[in-house]
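Our consortium's second objective concerns turning raw sequence data into structural hypotheses that experimental partners can test. To show how far this objective has progressed, the report includes one record in full. It was chosen at random from the queue rather than selected for favorable results. The single chain below, 103 residues long, was entered without modification.
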Amino acid sequence: MITLALSTGMMMGDTDTGKEMIGKSNYSWSNTAPSIAVIDAIAAIENVKSSDLEGSLDAPLFNYIDPEALDRLITSDSQIKVSFTFDEYYVLIDRDGLSVSYD
């Protein structure tokens, strides 16, 4: 089970991006694929099952980023940060975790 800490009421500011952060969670990428973490996080925000997310958004994840490339880039040992927009969300992933903000 993947849990994303979601804020309610007032949004938390993300000092790295200047965007309003919805949630942030730490991951061990050896146990969870980053692409799956993104889908699960956005599904939790949208309050739908991960399998139903595609119907909730304008387009699937692969229209925004290559999920296989994302999974190869982000590992627990990588020093890289990847950010992209997914529908109305701004996603930032690094070796420690995932944060989601409104774009």
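The partners drew two points from this record. The radius of gyration is 13 Å. The beta strands are 5-6, 12-13, 20-26, 82-86, 89-93, 97-102. Both points have been shared with the crystallography group to help prioritize constructs.
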